[in-house]
C-alpha cells in the first residue's frame, strides 16, 4: 500500500459521525470555500454538477435551523451547517460546463457542440422524478467527498437527512428548481464519535 493510499485509508477509517461540537470553534469562510472547492471535484451525471450549497454560520440562523432539523444539537453547536441542494434543472449548466472544458483544451469545438445538443435534447424532457433521482444521487457523491476532505483537514462532520424540507424551503427561500437533500454539520468534535460496526462483507457482496 502506497503512502497516499494509506493516508486515504486512515481518513476513511477515522471518519465517524460526530454530534457533539465545540461551539466556540470557528472555521473561516476562506477554509470553508477551499473545502467546498475540493468537494465539487466529485463526479456527476454528464458533468452537469447539479448541486448548490447553502453555508449557514450565523448563530441566530442556526438556532432557527435547529428547530427545522428535529432539534438536533449539532446544528447549533457546529462551526457551520452546509445544506446541499439538488438542481432539478441541471441542464441549464450545460453551456458553461462544456464551453469551459473546450476552453481548457479538454475537447474540440465539434465535440462540445455535440454534447451540448445531446444534453438539451434529453435532460429537459426527462420526467421530474428522473431528474430528482440524478440530482439526489450526485448530491450524495459531493456530500461524501466533502466529509472526507473535512476529516483530512482535522474536522468532523455528521450528515443529516432528518429535517423538515418544506420548512427549510420556506425559511431559506429555496425555489422549486432545487431540492433540499442533506444537511452536513461541520466543526471540531467536543466528544469522541459514537463507534459503529459494519455488516460482514459476505452479507453485502457477491462476486459473479
UniProtKB/TrEMBL annotation:
GO molecular function: oxidoreductase activity
Record's keyword annotation contains Oxidoreductase: yes
Domain Nitroreductase: 12-188
Stored Gene3D superfamilies: NADH Oxidase
Alphabetically ordered keywords of this record: Oxidoreductase
Top-rank taxon, per record: Bacteria
Keyword Flavoprotein: no
Pfam family, one: Nitroreductase
Family the entry assigns: Belongs to the nitroreductase family.
Annotated PANTHER family: NAD(P)H NITROREDUCTASE YDGI-RELATED, NAD(P)H NITROREDUCTASE YODC-RELATED
The protein, known as: Nitroreductase family protein
Organism per entry: Bacillus canaveralius
Amino acid at each position: 500500500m502506497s503512502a497516499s493510499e494509506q493516508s486515504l485509508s486512515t481518513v476513511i477509517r477515522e471518519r465517524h459521525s460526530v454530534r457533539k461540537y465545540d461551539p466556540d470553534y470557528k472555521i473561516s469562510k476562506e477554509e470553508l470555500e477551499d473545502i467546498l472547492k475540493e468537494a465539487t471535484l466529485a463526479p456527476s451525471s454528464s458533468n452537469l454538477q447539479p448541486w448548490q450549497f447553502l453555508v449557514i454560520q450565523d448563530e441566530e440562523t442556526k438556532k432557527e435551523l435547529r428547530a427545522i432539523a428535529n432539534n438536533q444539537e449539532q446544528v447549533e453547536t457546529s462551526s457551520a451547517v452546509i445544506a446541499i441542494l439538488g438542481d432539478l434543472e441541471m441542464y441549464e449548466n450545460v453551456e458553461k460546463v462544456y464551453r469551459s472544458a473546450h476552453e481548457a483544451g479538454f475537447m474540440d469545438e465539434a465535440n462540445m457542440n455535440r454534447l451540448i445538443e445531446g444534453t438539451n435534447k434529453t435532460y429537459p424532457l426527462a420526467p421530474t422524478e428522473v431528474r430528482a433521482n440524478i440530482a439526489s444521487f450526485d448530491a450524495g457523491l459531493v456530500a461524501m467527498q466533502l466529509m472526507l476532505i473535512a476529516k483530512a483537514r482535522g474536522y468532523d462532520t455528521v450528515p443529516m437527512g432528518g429535517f423538515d424540507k418544506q420548512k427549510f424551503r420556506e425559511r431559506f427561500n429555496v425555489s422549486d428548481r432545487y431540492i433540499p437533500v442533506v444537511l452536513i454539520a461541520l466543526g471540531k468534535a467536543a466528544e469522541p464519535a459514537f463507534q459503529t460496526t459494519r455488516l460482514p462483507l459476505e452479507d453485502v457482496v457477491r462476486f459473479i
